[in-house]
Write a structure and sequence with these properties.
The complex is a heterodimer of chains A (394) and B (305).
Chain A (H helix, E strand, L loop, with lengths): L1 E4 L1 H11 L4 E4 L7 H11 L7 E4 L3 H13 L4 E6 H6 L1 H9 L5 E6 L13 H4 L7 E4 L3 H16 L7 E6 L8 E4 L3 H7 L17 E2 L5 H33 L6 E4 L6 E5 L3 H14 L4 E6 L1 E3 L3 H8 L4 E6 L9 H10 L7 E6 L9 H15 L8 E2 L9
Parallel strand pairs in A: 2-3, 2-4, 4-5, 5-7, 6-7, 11-12, 11-14, 14-15, 15-16
Antiparallel strand pairs in A: 1-8, 6-13, 10-12
Helix pairs in contact in A: 1-2, 1-7, 3-5, 7-9
Chain B lengths: L18 H13 L3 E5 L3 H6 L11 E3 L5 H17 L10 E7 H6 L2 H10 L4 E6 L39 H6 L5 E6 L3 H13 L4 E6 L3 H4 L6 H10 L6 E4 L7 E2 L3 E2 L4 H5 L15 H18 L2 E2 L1
Helix pairs in contact in B: 1-7, 3-5
């Protein structure tokens, strides 16, 4: 059924279709619609068994999800920005305890200064927490990725939490047509969660979250690493099954006109749409530009990425984040991906679109110009900042 | 007094004479095996679960320091949801008990505790109070009593130990207007167990504040734990009371004291108060402690005529 919904509602509908046992969430702009919608579904009897816990903080939201998941429940939450930061400590614990909690994150800039608009600093800062990370381009992807994330996270070969990240306002508050699958279709795709690895049950007492001494700690981390490796395969399987059932194709990396591209732009999230249009325009002007959209950031799609970009002359990352004192986070991942390849492109990171600043064709043109300079042999300091009003910075 | 097979098995790494371990054993004896425990980070968690060993014969989970109440909320909600959808039997209703020390309750866990109490989860929250951050090496908390020396409220040449008074945590819990709040002491196990049972019988949140003397942090001989816990009650330093739905917000003393002993008898047995006696006796501070205890005992109605 097609409906015109905001990104937040698309994510909430996905959660509803997954029939969660426990949703614990705290309001924060711009993801607040999510807990509002869940509360509404519960109040209207549309989620008859679901317990909605209106917690007193995001830290407690994730803590309650951890408790619920450990007790055998399907648990999910939603947050953004400062909220994701407040639950940062718990993100590691959810993953370390191998609890397949699902989180919806509205990508929003971090304070200071306080800013409610889009960038990716929040979830980028959480990329080492042991969570699977999906980035959606539009509202349909918000729904689909959320739905798939339950099955991927709960797969016995994975058992890791997963977050779906959607751009603040650009998607969260924009109405778009979204194809909503039926409950029957979703039930057939997503079986109920029946954990065997954890259980808080007096009939079979189990100690969860013990003190990990040096003789064992490293092995537990290694097991998490293996689970992430397993997730690579499981994500592909679930994407394929999803396409078979629902007709929408997903892949960890989505190339656009990369076959002959001299310059490949790497994108995350909603800017991918703008970039595709921009590439169409550039192609008409005879410029060989392509794009790769990353849908999955963790586990990092090394294998899929390398063949798509290694023949380009320049690969440019569009970064709505900055690791201050270093540069773009995606750049670092890509550099690590390419460093041992015999043939590899030049790599450069562009910092732009922070704190809700729009990314326009003009910005993308500037990026292309810099990439062309690199091709001509010019060298420059990186990262390159796009659209900074330098007169305001003293 | 204790059953032979404790739900907290012997062989854990707690110090000899640990008040917290005694408190947990007494609570579990009253609660029975149909119980899920949540444990905040602290001595209790560290000493009972060095992987791959565990002292817990009931299901147990530790997540972090500040969120035992929130984790317990999630467990309780999960059981509700799983019952509602028929995934588990309708009558499968284990007790959910959160254990946290004073640091995890009075300080870093207060917000999560308040949230859990306010939302009305059917959880018993037990604070085992040893009046400082013992696991990290005896730092003051907002539970540390006036005059006590800790490593962050040392008895110096100018400042004689902790200069703030103890936060009234059970009254703060009671201010949430929850069905049951009580204080208890390991020196009065029958009273403690009765309170645990009462707390688990009510529908909704309950809070139990147990004074759990710590030989290492309070600096007394390991054989004196129960004696000191008893003296805390007999001197009026720690008042045993309960607050029920029948008399909301009104503490009813459950152990009235006849001929209340002077606080000095309690203080002088503990190294954390040694500076009040040597090298010179700080009668002024001892008097101040006594005045505060007298005031509190009058307020609660501790003294038996």
């Amino acid at each position: 059924m097609m409906r015109i919904v905001k990104g937040n509602e698309a994510a909430a509908i996905a959660a509803k279709l997954a029939k969660p046992d426990v949703v614990a969430a705290y309001p924060i702009t711009p993801s607040t619609d999510f807990p509002e919608k869940i509360a509404e579904y519960v109040a209207n009897g549309e989620l008859p068994h679901t317990q909605f816990i209106p917690v007193e903080s995001e830290h407690s939201a994730m803590s309650a999800c951890i408790g619920a998941s450990a007790a055998g429940a399907r648990a999910c939450t939603a947050t953004s920005s400062q909220g994701l930061e407040l639950m940062h400590e718990m993100l590691f614990i959810a993953s370390g305890m191998r609890l397949p909690i699902v989180l919806y994150n509205a990508n929003r800039a971090l304070s200071a200064p306080i800013n409610i608009w889009c960038d990716h600093q929040d979830s980028i800062s959480a990329r080492d927490t042991g969570w699977i990370q999906f980035y959606g381009e539009n509202n349909q992807e918000a729904l689909d990725l959320m739905l798939m994330s339950f099955r991927i996270a709960e797969d016995p070969r994975v058992l890791l939490p997963a977050m779906t990240c959607i751009d603040a306002f650009i998607c969260t508050h924009t109405f778009e047509p979204v194809d909503i699958p039926s409950q029957e279709e979703v039930d057939a795709f997503l079986p109920p969660y029946k954990p065997t690895h954890v259980k808080l049950d007096p009939d079979e007492p189990m100690t969860l979250g013990p003190f990990g001494v040096p003789e064992y700690y490293q092995e537990m981390r290694y097991a998490q690493h293996l689970a992430m490796k397993n997730a690579e395969k499981v994500i592909d399987e679930v994407f394929e099954d999803f396409e078979r059932r629902f007709g929408r194709k997903y892949s960890k990396v989505s190339p656009y006109m990369v076959e002959d591209a001299e310059i490949v732009l790497i994108t995350l999230g909603s800017v991918s749409g703008t970039t595709k249009e921009f590439i169409d325009k550039m192609r008409k002007e005879g410029k060989k530009i392509g794009m790769v959209k990353l849908t999955v950031l963790r586990p990092f799609p090394f294998r899929e990425l390398i063949p798509l970009i290694k023949n380009a002359r320049v690969v440019a990352t569009l970064e709505r984040n900055i690791s201050l004192g270093y540069g773009g986070a995606i750049y670092a991942d890509l550099a690590g991906t390419l460093i041992n390849e015999e043939k590899r492109p030049l790599l450069i990171d562009f910092i732009l679109g922070l704190g809700g600043r729009d990314i326009t064709f003009n910005d993308l043109e500037e990026i292309v110009k810099v990439c062309e300079k690199l091709i001509r042999g010019e060298r420059m300091e990186r990262p390159v900042w796009i659209g900074v009003k330098k007169e305001l910075v003293t | 007094m204790s059953e032979t097979t404790s739900l907290l098995a012997s062989g854990h790494r707690a110090c000899a004479g640990c008040g917290a371990a005694i408190a947990v054993r007494q609570v579990l004896e009253a609660a029975g095996p149909n119980t899920i425990c949540v444990n905040a980070t602290g001595c209790l968690e560290v000493t009972t679960t060095p992987y791959p060993q565990t002292a817990w014969r009931v299901p147990w989970i530790h997540v972090a320091f500040e969120n035992a109440a929130a984790v317990a909320s999630g467990i309780e909600a999960a059981y509700k949801a799983l019952r509602a959808k028929g995934a588990i039997p309708k009558d499968k209703k284990p007790n959910v008990i959160a254990f946290a020390g004073d640091g995890g309750t009075f300080d870093i866990g207060l917000q999560a505790l308040s949230g859990m109490l306010e939302r009305g989860h059917n959880v018993l929250y037990v604070c085992y109070d040893n009046e400082a951050y013992m696991n990290t090496g005896i730092q003051r908390s907002s539970s540390t009593p006036f005059g006590a020396a800790t490593t962050t409220s040392p008895a110096g040449k100018v400042i004689p130990g902790e200069m703030r008074k103890k936060k009234p945590i059970a009254l703060i819990a009671a201010a949430h207007d929850i069905p049951y709040v009580a204080t208890a002491s390991i020196a009065f196990p029958a009273d403690l167990k009765r309170k645990v049972k009462k707390a688990l019988e009510v529908e909704g949140p309950s809070f139990l504040h147990i004074l759990a003397p710590c030989p290492t942090g309070w600096r007394f001989g390991t054989e004196k734990t129960v004696e000191i816990a008893r003296l805390a009650v007999e001197t009026g330093v720690f008042v045993l009371y309960e607050i029920t739905n029948e008399n909301p917000l009104r503490p009813i003393v459950t152990k009235k004291i006849k001929d209340r002993k002077p606080v000095e008898e309690y203080l002088k047995l503990q190294g954390r108060f040694r500076h009040l006696f040597k090298p010179v006796k700080r009668q002024d501070i001892i008097d101040k402690i006594q005045e505060e205890v007298d005031r509190k005992c009058k307020l609660f109605g501790v003294d038996e005529d």
